Amino acid sequence: MAPLKLLAAWSLSVCLCLYPHLTSAQLRQNYYANVCPNVESIVRNAIRQKLQQAPNVTVPGTLRLFFHDCFVRGCDASVIVASTASNKAEKDHPDNLSLAGDGFDAVVKAKAAVDKVPSCRNRVSCADILAMATRDVIALSGGPSYAVELGRLDGLSSTAASVNGRLPQPTNNLNQLNALFAANGLSQADMIALSAAHTVGFSHCGKFSNRIYNFSRQNPIDPTLNRNYATRLQGMCPRKVDPRIAIDMDPNTPRTFDNMYFKNLQNGMGLFNSDQVLFTDQRSKPTVNKWAGNSPAFQRAFVSAMTKLGRVGVKTGRNGNIRRDCAVFN
């Protein structure tokens, strides 16, 4: 029997390595009911206060922080860890340098609020606080609220090198997007739903200038881009402008989490190629059309995708702990 047990244990470990999202078994709603029963309301109140201070950047900043965290090493708050003299952490990788400081600050403030309660102090992981904060910024900006699964531990490692090739890029096509999401156990429908996070927030001119000036020799402007929209973008991002100037991702309702993202794609107003391709590619176009005309269906799909995203690479047992300071390993 011993060899059989050993084989079973080995097989399980191989499965968990190949499919990191399977380690989410310990996640459940009301995980902290016995140690910090009011944790969700504590986090929500802290996020509400943060939104009063900086609403325009806190919502997209927190949402992007969660996404970038889960896609690299799993949802373990490793993206929040600060670099040291001996280690360049995830947050300092070029793909993460545009993450808004207010997203990090939202987690820090929520963590401080939780730790003010004696029974909660150092009992709630930074990864779970980020998951709750993300749900709250979505709901407080007009999007759906949902029961968030909790029980993640904070990761024990954070390196810039681990980010390489793991995050979607503005130039990605549908095959590339699907491959990146599939690597994290997410379907094409999940990818399209999560891409709608671009209904809030902003990007910098340098991220899309190729679409309005240097797309190709025959077409300087990307032909899938609405010409009037392209002209507006050129006005906001002239050729020699500082590439760090910020432009709203959603030109119509940039402060509201809604399904306008899909309506914009129908009108050729997806800011990135990775946005507009969801409409121009016939494999994803029907989903875009469906959610453009059915907000409740989109919201249900988004909640499902966010729940699945939150299960990616969850740390358990000796693979994680609860950080006293979200930016510093214990």
TrEMBL record:
Chain positions recorded as substrate binding sites: P168
Binding-site residues for Ca(2+) 2, renumbered to this chain: T199, D250, T253, D258
Cofactor(s) listed in the protein's UniProt record: heme b; Ca(2+)
The record's free-text note on cofactor binding: Binds 1 heme b (iron(II)-protoporphyrin IX) group per subunit.
Binding site for Ca(2+) 1: D69, V72, G74, D76, S78, E90
Record-annotated disulphide pairs: C36-C120, C70-C75, C126-C326, C205-C237
Enzyme Commission number(s) of this protein: 1.11.1.7
Keyword terms, alphabetized: Calcium, Disulfide bond, Heme, Hydrogen peroxide, Iron, Metal-binding, Oxidoreductase, Peroxidase, Secreted, Signal
Residue positions of the active site: H68
Compartmental location: Secreted
Keyword Disulfide bond (UniProt): yes
Database matches in CDD domains: secretory_peroxidase
Residues in Plant heme peroxidase family profile domain copies: 26-330
Chain sites annotated for binding heme b: H198
Catalytic reaction(s) noted: 2 a phenolic donor + H2O2 = 2 a phenolic radical donor + 2 H2O
Record's keyword annotation contains Endoplasmic reticulum: no
Site keyed Transition state stabilizer: positions: R64
Signal peptide region: 1-25
UniProt-listed PROSITE patterns: PEROXIDASE_1 (PS00435), PEROXIDASE_2 (PS00436), PEROXIDASE_4 (PS50873)
A Pfam family that the UniProt record links to this protein: peroxidase
Role, per record: Removal of H(2)O(2), oxidation of toxic reductants, biosynthesis and degradation of lignin, suberization, auxin catabolism, response to environmental stresses such as wounding, pathogen attack and oxidative stress. These functions might be dependent on each isozyme/isoform in each plant tissue.
Family statement drawn from the similarity comment of this UniProt entry: Belongs to the peroxidase family. Ascorbate peroxidase subfamily. Belongs to the peroxidase family. Classical plant (class III) peroxidase subfamily.
Protein name as it appears in the record: Peroxidase
Organism name: Rhodamnia argentea
Lineage of source species: Eukaryota, Viridiplantae, Streptophyta, Embryophyta, Tracheophyta
